Prior knowledge:
Blueprint: H1 10-37, H2 63-77
Amino acid sequence: MGRYYGWYSNKMRGQRRKREEEAQEEAARKSAATAEQGCGAKGNAAIEIIEHLALKPRRIPSRSWRELIKLDHEGLGS
Length: 78
């Protein structure tokens, strides 16, 4: 059996989690920088800047492909 590096593999889940954590840290840094600049002359609340991530989400495998992977993994447990 070959290795599976699709959407549900541990490797891909780890990479997605790492990208999400980095994006959250970046957003927190930008938020802190915005707060340090002050609220303006009128004391308005700070505006949070949200940027679109340049990364495209991976395509979710088709139902038939997911079923094949599921059957393959169930077969190994026997």
